[in-house]
Amino acid sequence: MPAAVSLNQLPKDARAVVRRLTGGGELASRLAGLGFVVGAPLIVLQNLGRGPLLVKVRETRHCAGSG
Length: 67
What we know:
By secondary structure, the protein is an alpha+beta fold. It is built from 1 helix and 4 strands. 13% of the residues lie in helices and 30% in strands. The longest helix has 9 residues, at 25-33. It is globular and about 30 Å long. The model has no long low-confidence stretch (mean pLDDT 90).
């Protein structure tokens, strides 16, 4: 199994699987509600290294961060 990396370290077009959520119970609960659950596949649609990160989890696009 490849080494775990943070979502923000993945380049555009990377495909990954959620292996772990960090940040506490409230954040994990919110992310689970958005589809970020252990085992969920995702695709990085945009990661410029700054500004928003755009990912697709299941059939939904999510934007994280800000400019």
